[in-house]
Amino acid sequence: SQKIEQNSEALNIQEGKTATLTCNYTNYSPAYLQWYRQDPGRGPVFLLLIRENEKEKRKERLKVTFDTTLKQSLFHITASQPADSATYLCALDISGGYNKLIFGAGTRLAVHP
Amino acid sequence: ETGVTQTPRHLVMGMTNKKSLKCEQHLGHNAMYWYKQSAKKPLELMFVYNFKEQTENNSVPSRFSPECPNSSHLFLHLHTLQPEDSALYLCASSQPSGGVDNEQFFGPGTRLTVL
User: B residues 75-114 near A, CB within 8 Å?
Assistant: First the structure.
């Protein structure tokens, strides 16, 4: 069955540093991969989508890479701020682009002043 | 606000009760989803509706019964639940399957506790 692993349950970094979160998957070739942010008591909020034929995507301080050979996506937040503290989820499309997603358990990021 | 609302936000029910969760989206989307999020576990997809038709049932027990009367509304009817069904239930919407814009918009969730 499909499996998604996100690195370490929690990641602590200093303000201003770059946070790097990892998403590894097995047993599938997704059409795309998405990253979401979830704050306590709230639903996930979409951040970025990267397709299987794209290597890298950027949006402001966020950067996502996608290596379909390694079956891995990296999510970077540059110049991190305490307001970036949240849980970040990666989600894989397992339906060939038809919106059936499976999610990783998430990585809780804490950015300290 | 994401444009997806859910009511109630919190629900406590006994195992013999019947209750319903409601989701409404104001985004003009035609695909809607129910997810379950338990503590320390990934989001689990439960049901998918496209243009009011159910296109996915992820082996969900029959004590959960979805209903989609139109593209803007989605319900989850609950009956004879078990304590292990206690979780955060999230509704989401998106453009239809196969569309270019595949991001999903989530509601705030209903925190369900089954006693």
Answer: 90, 92, 94, 96-99, 102-109
**Both tokens assigned to B70:** 């139109």
- Token pair belonging to B62: 């029959």
Taking contacts as CB-CB distances below 8 angstroms, the residues of chain A near B56 are 100
* Cα B18 from Cα B32, distance rounded (Å): 23
Q: Is the pLDDT of residue B13 over 90?
A: yes
Short-list B51, B34, B35, CA closest to B95: B51
Please say if the pLDDT value at position B99 is more than 60: no
DSSP sequence for B33-92 = EEEEE-TTS--EEEEEEETTEEEEE-S--TTEEEEEEETTEEEEEEES--GGG-EEEEEE
Residue A106 sits at the chain B interface (C-beta within 8 Å): yes
Return the pLDDT at B2: 77
Q: Is B106 exposed, middle or buried (0-12, 13-18, 19+ CB in 10 A)?
A: buried
* Distance (Å, whole) CA B41 – CA B34: 16
Which of A30-34, A52-56, A71-75, B27-31 ranks highest by mean pLDDT? A71-75
- Mean pLDDT (whole number) for B82-106: 86
Alpha carbons A67 and A76: distance in angstroms, whole number: 14
Q: Which of A46, A100, A103 sits opposite B43 (nearest CB)?
A: A103
Looking at per-residue pLDDT, the higher value among B101 and A52 belongs to A52
Residue to mutate among B23, B36, B104, with most A CBs inside 10 A, is: B104
